[in-house]
Design a protein that fits this description.
452 residues; alpha/beta; Dihydrodipicolinate Reductase, domain 2; globular
């Protein structure tokens, strides 16, 4: 409304000025006219400077130049940041990034890139098993970090990463970008403010993963440094389907869709009731469809139930109605998303959709002091925080807790039974076997000493 009034005022002012100018021109004598054919120059309105972008003046290094990493770096570029260095173990990815950002420095190893003094921050989209090591190395080198989700491969890695972030005081943003979209924030705010009344249950559906195989061993491509790609994971023969886009369906490098889509949707579940610096007290999972022998090792279909100290039950189930990439396969089936159910009704939210049992629930006015952290651009929020030194919307501890929730679910699926968890101590309760899955053996030289 204020903008509208101001706009009208400006128009009225311009009309008045125009009228005065016209009157002056009509009353002017011939002596006032330009002589000898001289022409007056029309006044040119001053050009308004463009508003600054969040990334203006920042120099960024990209580690992992595949699809997701390139997408994240393109976002930073769009927001004014300059991509000045790129790194990948696949020369074809590196060449494509160099072509996209001419003049960038290229590196085959992230340890060389993070040491460059002209970098303000690192963005990376590597496979999950490299997340912790790149993050720690970058923060130790004085760089801020935008890390794709899930933040870590194991719970133990998350503890190490949070410790380093606190010691270095670097800005770290986890790439759970649903926190920076209107629908998910509104749903979380309404739940947090008890618009649904007491929260009774939460149901999450994630796309089923890929179920393929058996696969054949083949020669490593000449342009691909496969041993470095494997890093701290076991040395195994090269199979094309292990790497790049399909890495997440192998236990060695990820945990399937529970740490992919699950890292997004279940992060919102923790955010809504204010459990994103804590977590559940138990997890119980089971496999619904077994993997094909000789193929992907992570089960494509599963279900998990977490329980919280409030008694809240939170389930996560796979659905084949949504493809592994999130596209709709069966519009009449159960699509991926989140359903919050309370005493007063329910709210359903997924990407592009927010609805409720009663639309009036979504119109509830909340006081400003009851709102959650506001961000409408996840990468923009990160770049702004690099400059301001404020904590981003999904900082290290929050990203770690969201990853932990997913890891607990994955561990319970692997064990095929219930596990109990102490979210304060971040320990399994009376379960040595489950405790063993909180970390994984690391192949030398890639253990914490390589980056600490």
């Amino acid at each position: 409304m204020n903008n509208h009034r101001n706009s009208n005022s400006r128009r009225d002012f311009l009309k008045t000025v125009g009228a005065v100018a016209a009157a002056s021109s009509l009353s002017a004598g011939a002596a006032d006219a330009p002589k000898d054919g001289a022409q007056t120059k029309p006044e040119v309105a001053p050009v308004k400077p463009k508003p600054p972008k969040p990334g203006d003046g920042l120099s960024i290094g990209l580690v992992g130049c595949g699809g997701q990493g390139t997408g994240d770096a393109t976002n930073a570029d769009r927001l004014g940041a300059k991509i000045v260095a790129v790194c990948d173990v696949d020369e074809s990815h590196l060449a494509a990034a160099k072509k996209r950002w001419p003049g960038t420095e290229t590196y085959s190893h992230f340890l060389d890139l993070v040491q460059q003094k002209n970098l303000d921050a690192i963005i990376y989209g590597t496979p999950d098993h490299w997340h912790t090591f790149v993050s720690i190395a970058a923060m130790r080198a004085g760089k801020d970090v935008y890390c794709e989700k899930p933040l870590t491969l194991t719970i133990d890695e998350g503890k190490h990463l949070v410790k380093v972030q606190r010691e270095t005081n670097r800005v770290l943003q986890t790439g759970t970008q649903q926190r920076s979209t209107t629908g998910f924030r509104m749903a979380a705010e309404l739940v947090r403010n008890n618009v649904l009344g007491k929260l009774k249950e939460v149901s999450v559906w994630v796309p089923a993963g890929l179920r393929e195989g058996p696969f054949k061993v083949s020669e490593v491509p000449k342009e691909f440094d496969y041993d470095t790609w494997l890093g701290q994971t076991p040395a195994v023969p090269y199979i094309k389907e292990r790497t790049h886009l399909k890495f997440r369906y192998w236990w060695n490098y990820s945990a399937g869709t529970i740490t992919d889509w699950g890292a997004h949707h279940n992060d919102i579940v923790l955010w809504a009731p204010g459990k994103d610096r804590s977590g559940p007290i138990s997890a119980e999972g089971k496999v619904l469809v077994e993997p094909i022998p000789g193929g992907f090792t992570v089960p494509s279909e599963y279900e998990i139930e977490w329980t919280y100290d409030t008694g809240l039950k939170h389930t996560c189930k796979t659905t084949t109605a949504s493809s592994w990439s999130g596209q709709t396969v069966d519009p009449k089936g159960q699509l991926h998303g989140i359903k919050f159910v309370g005493e007063n009704g329910w709210i359903w939210v997924t990407r592009g959709t927010l609805t409720a049992s009663d639309r009036e629930l979504l119109k509830t006015k909340l006081p400003d002091d009851k709102r959650l952290y506001f961000s409408n651009d996840h990468m923009g929020n990160f770049l702004e925080c690099v400059k301001s030194r404020k904590a981003p919307i999904c900082e290290a501890e929050i990203g770690h807790r969201s990853a932990t929730l997913c890891h607990l679910g994955a561990i319970s699926v692997r064990l095929g039974r219930k596990i109990n968890w102490d979210p304060e101590k971040e320990e399994m309760v009376g379960d040595k076997e489950a405790t063993g899955w909180m970390s994984r053996e690391m192949r030398k030289p890639w253990d914490y000493t390589a980056v600490m």
